[in-house]
Write a structure and sequence with these properties.
The protein is α/β, with parallel strands linked by helices and 435 residues long. The chain has two domains: 277 residues, UDP-N-acetylmuramoyl-L-alanine:D-glutamate ligase (3-Layer(aba) Sandwich); 134 residues, Alpha-Beta Complex (Protein-Tyrosine Phosphatase, Chain A), CATH 3.90.190.20. The chain has 15 helices and 18 strands. A nine-stranded mixed sheet has the order 8-7-6-1-5-2-3-4-18, sandwiched between helices. A six-stranded mixed sheet has the order 12-13-17-14-15-16, sandwiched between helices. A three-stranded antiparallel sheet has the order 9-10-11, covered by helices on one side. Strand 15, helix 13 and strand 16 form a beta-alpha-beta unit. The longest helix has 15 residues. The radius of gyration is 21 Å and the shape is globular.
């Protein structure tokens, strides 16, 4: 084994391939074939889209698990620990198992260089192959067509939304991006689109492949009821469903999308009403309108593109606060910073702008310039890094004020780190590990 610790493996992987992001399937497909993993023994759901991917994975994982199936889940990026990326039977994989999987990938790759994400995806597939799974739910990292997760032919594809993000790699408009997202579709296999008004490119690709495409508001949806909400689709209804544990009305759309996917797989993996209710009530995902206190005055969210920021703003509007709202924000420089700030502008009273000291990270003055154009000079403060911004926001906030931390995963990770816990009070215990 090349290394004995997870940290050493990850540090080395960051330097293995000359490019941090190098979309394409040939390298991954070759190594996968050498490992004998091209035809998994378990069913696969691939989840792509601009926003809502992680939530849909968590919801399907929880409902399928409650129904008694052994489920694997793969998501990225992580917030605090790399181990978050793979769960087996709802437990994170331990360091030793990751190291063993990395060693097997390393042996199989021979002279092929892999990106950090490709290496981790192959290791996840290796872990799943040894876990006795019934089904795996896998989140696409970026795009879809050339993303490492797309190396498998999924039994069902879910595309949550298509909006503007990662334009340097995926294209400048929804139609161009939709072509990349649609790359996870497979001929004659069902797919779900979790938003209204699917891009024409997605519909065209589905028709060309003979894919039964089920679209939100046309083929399935939800309705609020006096007792919770109901789901409808394929001529069926599920009534008296509990609100998802993950906050925000936008999670109802994610839940409806997850239920549509499970309905399509019901002939092989039936999920009863009790399991649906249990899964909705238990599924959680850090960094999605996450309350860090009991009153909802300390909130963390990974909203880092305009669509996600608009969903966060809507969630905050539906959670009235008697005091002022302080925002701590940090973003990557290649994001639509003006679009993100504009979407949040109506909900924030004071901005605490933090620089991100990472590759592609925006410096505080760069981001603050965008914020000042919206909020004005008096409502903006700059800080070199997230911890300083968190401390300043906590010091400035009155008892009834709200602090919302949002932006990059790096921003959320810093906000949730135990070392920076002075601004929030939360049990930072993690799930048990799978051994």
């Amino acid at each position: 084994m090349r290394y004995s610790t997870l940290a050493d493996w990850l540090t080395w992987q960051e330097t293995l391939h000359p490019a941090k992001i190098d979309l394409g399937l040939e390298r991954v497909r070759t190594v996968l074939r050498r490992m004998g993993l091209e035809q998994p023994s378990y069913a696969v759901i691939t989840v792509g889209g601009t926003n809502g991917k992680g939530s849909c994975v968590a919801l399907m994982e929880a409902m399928l698990s409650a129904a008694g199936y052994r489920v694997g889940a793969y998501t990225s990026p992580h917030l605090l620990r790399y181990n978050e990326r793979v769960r087996v039977a709802q437990n994170m994989v331990g360091d030793a198992q990751w190291c063993e999987a990395f060693a097997r990938v390393d042996e199989a790759r021979q002279d092929i260089t892999l990106t950090y994400f490709e290496f981790g995806t192959l290791a996840a597939l290796d872990l799943f192959s040894r876990a006795g799974l019934d089904i795996a739910v896998m989140e696409v990292g970026m795009g879809g067509r050339l993303d490492a997760v797309n190396v498998l032919d999924a039994d069902l594809a879910v595309i949550t939304t298509v909006d503007i993000d990662h334009t340097a790699w995926l294209g400048a408009d929804r139609e161009q991006i939709a072509v990349e997202k649609a790359g996870i579709l497979r001929r004659s296999r069902p797919a779900v689109y979790g938003d209204a008004n699917p891009p024409a490119a997605l519909v065209t690709q589905a028709r060309a492949l003979g894919v039964p495409l089920h679209c939100f508001s046309w083929d399935f949806g939800y309705e609020l009821e006096r007792q919770g909400w109901s789901w409808w689709g394929l001529g069926r209804r599920r009534h008296i469903l509990p609100m998802p544990r993950m906050r925000g009305l936008f999670q109802l759309k994610n839940a409806a999308t997850a239920l549509m996917a499970l309905e399509l797989l019901a002939p092989r993996f039936p999920v009863g009403q009790q399991a649906v209710q249990a899964g909705l009530s238990s599924a959680e995902l850090p960094g999605r309108l996450q309350f860090l206190d009991e009153r909802g005055l300390r909130i963390c969210d990974v909203a880092h593109n305009p669509q996600a920021a608009a969903a966060l703003a809507e969630g905050l509007t539906n959670l009235p606060c008697s005091g002022a709202t302080h925002a701590v924000v940090g973003l990557l420089a290649d994001k639509d910073m003006a679009g993100v700030i504009g979407a949040m502008s109506g909900t924030v009273d004071m901005w605490h702008v933090a620089g991100l000291d990472c590759e592609r990270g925006a410096a505080a003055p760069q981001l603050a310039q965008q914020v000042r154009a919206v909020a004005g000079e008096q409502a903006v403060r700059e800080y070199a890094a997230v911890p300083a911004a968190l401390a300043a926001a906590a010091a400035a906030a009155a008892a009834a004020d709200r602090i919302v931390v949002f932006g990059s995963f790096y921003t959320a990770a810093a906000a949730l780190a135990p070392d920076n816990a002075a601004w929030w009070r939360k049990d930072d215990s993690m799930h048990n590990e799978w051994h």
